[in-house]
Amino acid sequence: MTNNEAESRYEIRQDGRVVGFAEYRPAGDALMFTHTEVEEGHEGQGLGSQLVQVALDDARTQGCQVVPMCPFVAAYIREHPEYTELVQPGQRGVFGL
Questions:
Q1: Neighbours of 79 (CB within 10 A)
Q2: Where do the N-acetyltransferase domain residues begin and end (predicted)?
């Protein structure tokens, strides 16, 4: 999994092909995650969760906050409360955190 900064997305590849990605936009000192997608035929393998975990861990390492506009990212954070601290306290209620 890599952060493709030119495309503003984290990518997961298999056999050199992108099979999933989590798009983001820089928003001040935060990363706004807007869309996560796993290619048809690769769903249900946990790739989306792996991708989001790497992206959130990277945001934490960079000292960035996260705005989980993507429903998948918001759901992942709800299921893994150790990432809630990445979302600004005032925005947590908006995302059900």
A1: 9
A2: 1-97, 2-88
